[in-house]
Automatic annotation (TrEMBL):
<feature type="domain" description="CarD-like/TRCF RNAP-interacting">
    <location>
        <begin position="1"/>
        <end position="113"/>
    </location>
</feature>
<dbReference type="InterPro" id="IPR003711">
    <property type="entry name" value="CarD-like/TRCF_RID"/>
</dbReference>
<dbReference type="InterPro" id="IPR042215">
    <property type="entry name" value="CarD-like_C"/>
</dbReference>
<dbReference type="InterPro" id="IPR036101">
    <property type="entry name" value="CarD-like/TRCF_RID_sf"/>
</dbReference>
<protein>
    <submittedName>
        <fullName>Transcriptional regulator</fullName>
    </submittedName>
</protein>
<dbReference type="Pfam" id="PF02559">
    <property type="entry name" value="CarD_TRCF_RID"/>
</dbReference>
Length: 174
């Protein structure tokens, strides 16, 4: 069970803070259950969810885990995900997202980047499904890494780029 103040990943919502544990003062809930009151870190609102929910939850990665994930980025192999059936492609992306692993989010982003380059060489544009899932993956990854590294979300891409460049040049001052 999480504690008040914990930062967690909650389903596809992303990073949330546990604000309270107990019975919220709202109607239409099961009074025999305990609930988490969650506040999304990067959006407004409150989420009331039973502590025994089947929706995926996990603690956010630690600062050292975030740095390790960034070190893995150059080694995550991207592949062009091609499928004429956009539903099948969408299911593939959803399956990767449902793992809730940062490395799978990076895989989606890198794969879409490679695909974008390939279709541009053919004079075409990237499909909406690829763009949609790349955006979701990027928002989830950047949100979690920003909180773990204690940096603004807007600086995550630059932080990653600088870290990868330092690794490639053999100069890592972390």
């Amino acid at each position: 069970m999480y504690k008040v103040g914990d930062l967690i990943i909650y389903g596809s919502q992303g990073v949330c803070r546990v604000e309270a544990i107990g019975l919220p003062e709202i109607g239409g809930i099961d009074p025999s259950k305990l609930y988490y009151t969650l506040s999304p870190v990067y959006s407004d609102g409150k989420i009331f969810i039973p502590v025994d929910t089947s929706i995926y939850m996990r603690p956010i990665v630690s600062k050292s885990e975030a740095k390790q994930i960034i070190q893995e980025i150059p080694h995550i192999q991207a592949e062009v995900i091609e499928n004429q059936n956009y539903k099948a492609m969408e299911e593939h992306y959803k399956k990767l997202l449902s793992s809730h692993k940062c490395t799978d989010l990076i895989y989606i982003m890198k794969s879409v980047y490679v695909k974008r380059k390939a279709v541009r060489l053919q004079g075409k544009n990237l499909g909406q499904t690829d763009e949609k899932f790349k955006k979701i993956a990027e928002e989830l990854l950047n949100s979690e890494l920003a909180v773990a590294l204690d940096i603004p979300r807007s600086e995550v891409n630059q932080y990653i780029e600088d870290s990868v460049n330092r690794m490639e040049t053999g100069y890592d001052m972390q």
